[in-house]
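Might you be able to consider the sequence and fold that I enclose below?
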Amino acid sequence: MALTPLYSVLVPAVTVTVATPGASQGAMTVPVEALAAGMPTGTILDFGSAKFAKLADDANEAATVLDTAPIPTDLAEGDEATYQPPSGSPLLSDAAQVLATNKPDKFLAEHLRAEMLLGLTVPVYEDTDAEELAFAVILQINYQVAHRNKVPDMKAVSSERGTESFRDRSVDPDAAMIVERVTGRRSVRYEPAGFGVRC
């Protein structure tokens, strides 16, 4: 069973649909339904069945004609391709953007881990609350990627008060505060000067 994040932090994929009358082999323009987002020069669109188009110029959001290199095969009205923007949210750090673009499976793992560390569960919040929680997840992903392989998820620490578990080094304090404000749940409690989180 595949796990799915509760809150989306990536720019959604764009569907490119060929409009009437389509385009013949060798054509250098392709009519499309208005684009939901722009695409850069050099983007290769795969319409399936060995049908491709390579953009010869940037395509802006809402564009209805694509300037392309000569297309190798006919494109018919209704042919569809999917364009996935190369980056996620502009709020993701450069390192997280690289992970999202080049290693989407590892980015998904970091995304799921972020939601688990922040204690996010169903039911999923909506509207402004969902946007705030998505922002908290982005902060947490950035934090995890920056500290990858440097700290444990959980550390048992002996003190005069007995053995306590700490995980402050795995949770971004700002992200945790946002989650607490939106959900009203305090899953971790921060102590002064970053000494840890008592679970």
